[in-house]
Amino acid sequence: MLGFLLGAFMGALALSLPVSARQGQRVDFLDALFVATSSVCVTGLSTVNIGQTFSPFGQAVILLLIQFGGLGIVTFTTIVLILFRRRITLSDRMLIQSAYNLDTLSGLVRLTRQILKVTLCLEGLGAIGYFLVFIPEYGAIGIWYGIFHAVSAFCNAGIDLLGGNSLCSYVHNPIMNITTVFLIIVSGLGFPVYWEVAGFASSRVRKNHSAPRKLNLHARIVLLATLSLILIGAVLTLLFEYDNPNTLGPMDWPCKLMAAVFQSVTLRTAGFATIPQESFRPASCLIYLALMFIGGSPAGTAGGVKTVTTVLLFASMLANIKGKKNVIVMHRKIADETIRRCVAIVTFSFSALFLLTAALLAVQQSDFLDTLYEMTSAIATVGLSRGLTGALLPAGKLLVALAMYLGRIGPITLALAFNSRTPAENISCAEGKVIIG
Fold this sequence. Notes:
Blueprint: H1 2-15, H2 29-40, H3 50-53, H4 56-71, H5 73-83, H6 90-99, H7 108-138, H8 141-154, H9 174-189, H10 191-205, H11 217-241, H12 253-266, H13 282-294, H14 307-321, E1 327-329, E2 332-334, H15 336-364, H16 368-379, H17 394-409, H18 411-419
Antiparallel strand pairs: 1-2
Helix pairs in contact: 1-2, 1-4, 2-4, 2-17, 4-8, 5-7, 7-8, 7-9, 9-12, 10-11, 11-12, 11-13, 13-16, 14-15, 15-16, 15-17, 16-17
C-alpha cells in the first residue's frame, strides 16, 4: 500500500516540475497526481493530453512509473537490490513467495531475474513491431514512441503519446493491432503461467516422460478463461455493433473482426482504444462493464477481480445449485478458504465500485452510463473512458484517483494491512440458522 502511494506522490512531484511540461504548458499538482496515480497503477486515464502536455523528461517519468507499477512493488524492489548487489533477506524472499503464490522459498531471486528478462524481451519485441509503424510516420522520434507504447501496452497501462484519440487512427493497421493485442494478452496471463507453459513445452521437446502430462490447474484455468472471454467479447461486439455507423458499420468484415477482437482484448485492463468508447451502444457497454470488472489473470500486470476468481465463483455457484458439498474444477477440489477469498475479493470490489460511483455521480452530476463506465474502468485499472475524464471536477479527480489506487493494490492487500495485528480466533460459536434466497 505504502509503496504505490509513495510512488504516486513522488511521481506527482516530478510531473509538477516546470521541466516536466512542454514550453507554454503548465501542470498543476492535482493533474500531476492524477496522471502519476494512473501511471503507477497502470490504468491509463488522464485529465491532460500526455503527448502535448509533457516534455520528454515528463514522458520519461511517466514511463518509469508505468514500468514500476507493472512489475509490482515486490519485484521492482528485488530487482533494485540485485542490481546494487544487496543481500536478499529471508523476509524479502517471503514477500516474493507471497506475491507469486509459490510453494517454496528456493530459487526466488533467480525467478525475479527471469521476470525481468522476460519483461524486457517481450517489451523489446513489441517495440520492434511499433517501430514498423512509428518510424516511417514520425522519423527518429518514432523510436521513442515505439519504446514508450511497448512498455505501456505490456504493463497494461494504455497511456499513449499520440493525442486524445488513443489508437483510433490505426484501426485499419494490422501491425499496430496485432502488436498491441499480443502484448496485452501475454502480460495479462501472469508470470506463473509463463513458467508453467515454458516448462511443459521444454519437457515435451526433450521427451521427458517423468514430467506432468498436463499443465497445472492454475495455468489451465487462466488459458481457458482468457480465450473464452476474448471470444465472448469479440462475438458480442460484432453482434451488437456490426451495423453501427459510429463504430463497425463502415468497415469491411476483416476490419470489423480485427476491431472487435482489439476491443475485447483491451477491455482486459489495457486502456488503448481503436474506436471511441462513447460511440458504442448501451448494450455493448453493459457487456464491456462485466469484462472490465473481471479483468486479467493473477500475478501479472492486469487488474480487475481476475479470471481465476470469476471461474471459481461460478464453479462454487454451480456446486451449490447441484447440491454438491465440494467445489470441483477440472477434477480438482478447491479449498474452502480459496472460495472465501474469491467471495471477499468480488464483494469488496463491487462495494467499492458502487460507493465510488454514487459519490462521483453526486459530485459530477454526469450521465449515469458514462460515470459507471469511468469508475469501473478506474477500479479495474483499465483506462477506457466515454469522455468523462477530461471533464472531471477536482473532487471527481480525487475520487477516480482513489479508485485507481484501490484497484491496483487489491482488496486482499487492503484487508491484510488493516488486520495484520488481529489475534487468532480461539472461540467457537454455536451454529445458527437463517433463511436465505
